[in-house]
Amino acid sequence: MGNISLLEKIERKIKINDDSTGRYIVIYDFYKYNVSRIPQRFYRNIYRLFTKRGDCYFIQKSVIICESLRSAKLIEGIVSHYGGNVLIYRVCDEKI
User: How far is residue 29's CA from residue 64's CA, in Å, rounded to a whole number?
Assistant: First the structure.
């Protein structure tokens, strides 16, 4: 048995069904006192998630839209693993 990827480890911890759809905004930040610089592996894992799930995309450098709560929680796990702070918001109304 080979090494388990970070994404697989986080997926095993999440207890959310794939049917919990909706639109979610994930906002994250890495404060300088937490992290001296964001590791390249962080972005590799984020893009690996984008490719695997196919329901997330960046709208700004540290703001991601997800079409499922599961994907949002996976991003939360990746950000937390690398020492960042993260918030998830559910979008209720897209247009005002």
Answer: 12
Q: Show the 3-state SS of the chain.
A: CCCCCHHHHHHHHCCCCCCCEEEEEEEEECCCCCCCCCCHHHHHHHHHHHHHHCCEEEEECCEEEEEEHHHHHHHHHHHHHCCCEEEEEECCCCCC
CATH code 3.30.70 for 6-90: yes
Domain boundaries, the chain: 6-90
Can you give the pTM of this predicted structure? Answer: 0.85
What pLDDT sits at residue 8? 86
The model's pLDDT over 6-17, given as tens digits with 9 standing for 90+, comes to 888 888 888 776
Question: Which of the residues in the chain have pLDDT under 50?
Answer: none
